[in-house]
Design goal:
Length: 164
């Protein structure tokens, strides 16, 4: 008959040990997204985004991961109907997969801005000509208000002389 200490230790071990060893290993968000695409071949991005949102993964995260899967070649998007298909059966971290298959993953590094050098353009010298404005008195009088006409009348009398 086991001692009380052994029985107690056995009960504690059974209680604290996970029933399934896979529960110890938590899957990353990218692995969850990839597994969904793999298990639901032919799904479109909207279906994946909706399913991941229900599992608590943000929409932006899902969109980004789908784009990265496509970029490194883990997932292929049908050009006609936009359905997604996994090219591998097992999830591999993106960086490892990219290195193994010779593709490049950007990892958020910003590219240096390219400086554009332009040839200097000769600026033409300004001409000392007075611009000619074409107008007629009928057009001026048609578009002027009564107050503006009175002000114009007063100014013209000052300029040409005479009484108002």
């Amino acid at each position: 008959m086991p001692s009380l200490q052994d029985a107690l230790q056995k009960a504690i071990n059974e209680w604290t040990e996970p029933e399934d060893k896979q529960e110890e290993k938590q899957m990353s968000k990218s692995e969850i997204i990839f597994n969904y695409i793999r298990d639901n071949e032919g799904c479109v991005s909207k279906n994946v985004i909706d399913a991941m949102y229900k599992q608590g993964i943000k929409t932006v995260t899902t969109e980004t991961m789908i784009g990265q899967f496509i970029k490194v070649g883990m997932v292929v998007r049908d050009p006609v109907c936009n359905e997604l298909f996994a090219k591998t059966d097992k999830y591999t971290p993106l960086i490892s997969y990219a290195k193994a298959h010779g593709t490049r993953l950007n990892n958020g590094k910003k590219k240096k801005p390219v400086e554009i050098t332009r040839r200097p353009v000769a600026i033409p010298e300004p001409k000392n000509e007075v611009p000619v404005v074409r107008w007629n008195i009928e057009g001026l009088l048609r578009d002027i208000s009564l107050q503006q006409a009175k002000a114009l009348y007063v100014e013209l009398h000052k300029y040409f002389g005479g009484t108002v």
